[in-house]
Amino acid sequence: MLRLRSLSGWFGRTRGLRRLSIFTDVRFQDLAIDPRLLRGLEVALGPGARLTSVQQQAILRQLEDPCQKRPDLLLQAHTGTGKTIAFLLPVLQRLLALEADGQVQAAKGVFALVLAPTRELVLQLAKVASGLLLYSGGQVRSSFVAGGFSMQEDIERLKADAPHILFATPWRLVHHLQSTPHFVRALGSIEVFLLDEADRLLDPVFIHKVDYIFRCLSSRPQMVLCSATFSEHIRKFAMRSLRANLEVISTVEADAAKAHLEVAQPVDQVLVRYEPQKFLPVLHALLVKEMLVNKGEPKRVLVIFPTVRWLQFFYVLLKHRANMPGLLALHRSLADDRRRSRAFRFSRGAPATMGALFATDVAARGMDFDVHTVIQVGPPEDREQYVHRAGRTGRLESSGRSILLLNPLEERILQELNGLQLHREEAVEEDESFSSVENNIHGWWEDAGLSASGHLFFASAIAYYLNELGRLRVKAGEVVQTVSGLLQSTGLPKEFGLPAIPRGLADRLRQKDELVAVRTETVRERWDVLSALTPHPSARRRAAVGGIWWFGQCQGKPSASL
Ligand SMILES: Nc1ncnc2c1ncn2[C@@H]1O[C@H](COP(=O)(O)OP(=O)(O)OP(=O)(O)O)[C@@H](O)[C@H]1O
């Protein structure tokens, strides 16, 4: 009873899904847009394409505005509703207008700078821009700098492209600003500074880099902040830091303070609970079911894992031992070219085949995937992360499913995520084909490579839960029990015991104030797992953004720049 009461708050009261059209009646050809840009739009979106509501509000507003000093802009709309074109088109239109007046010259440097948090997103944005500029005759150009290419490759690309609009990840751009001669000068003429996934770029992981870049600009540009989510904290920070005449364009209803309403409307959001010992059968059953929904028509699935090691272990088991077809992995440890090609294989426009992409959060934001179902393994870090992960499906009014997969340990975290309400809970039956999977993967622990991968998964999952101890409010012993269950879901016999955990991790467990020793037998050695009774406050993303010099006044360039 207690359990039911605590869970009931997770399910939205809405019965059925609201389906409101995101499209307006306005067509791109009705706008005063450069014909070259219109042709690019026609190729990208098809002839006679209508604007989505965020595009109508953002594009019309900016096309109408004749003044040179444009106000800062905060743009918020649901995932998959066309924000990219909403913020790119006005910039490209301005550039083409300047070009028509003979004012755009390569020597003047970059006119617009667009930052995005991941290299995949930077490449995706750069591709959209070059598609729209297809008929500009090379007069207005775009380029990018991002990880995955050498610094020298970046420099050569920039020399060849001489871009007016530059897409970049903050880390790589700062690297160039600090080490590539004349790079700061190339950014001297920036008039528009755009942050895609702005709330992510303003969180503690990126804000120092963004701040550094901002201080390298010689004059204050127009700032455009764009995202599907702006937490109250980030919104207040942006309001304080942007110009007083800031314009806010938001198509997210005021009552959508609840995360499930911030996800695109056609997404069916469900919760699946599992016991750790059933993790693999449940994951397998979900994959089989979700890849074959709609009368056997093949569909694509995105599975988001909490850690790379977790992902890799189950990926190798299912793909290479169980020979499950169509699986691909995408994470930061992949070789650069593979990382690029895998993101592309699941993107919109790529040939449709059945399959599942096992990814970490590198795929959670901004990526324009063509997937029907998103499975989130474990709880999101916050409501915003939930919205972005779920938003990889249900794009542009297409239907989709978002499944949150939780074990009992993780359920407690959800209670912290106020307003995260899902449509319903679903039970998952083991798929009958799992017995053959079980046969195929049996004995994986005797394979040296897989055994090493299993060890790494075990340690990484413990470390992951350990970081969340404050939110979980459990003893470290329960963490070890849960992770052992996950491992045993692969058929690992109990008599084999558990892998040893690395010394550093064991030390972290021991560092807790009150310790209880739990003795466990392992394959290779005996080891002690120490469970802590003291909650560990997880402060990572809650760290205050304040105290950063930012966006206010420009007080010269940082000394580290050239
Ligand atoms: N007016 C339109 N008509 C048809 N298709 C469109 C239109 N605008 C955008 N699209 C397509 O919709 C898809 C989603 O657009 P986009 O990636 O810009 O969404 P988004 O709002 O930025 O999502 P996210 O918040 O996840 O980043 C893309 O494939 C894009 O080409």
TrEMBL record:
Residues of the Helicase C-terminal domain: 266-442
Give the EC number: 3.6.4.13
Source domain of life: Eukaryota
Tell me yes or no: is Kinase among this UniProt entry's keywords.
no
Catalysed reactions, as listed in the record: ATP + H2O = ADP + phosphate + H(+)
Its family remark reads: Belongs to the DEAD box helicase family.
The record describes the protein's role as:
RNA helicase.
PANTHER family on file: RNA HELICASE (PTHR24031)
Q: What is this protein identified as?
A: ATP-dependent RNA helicase
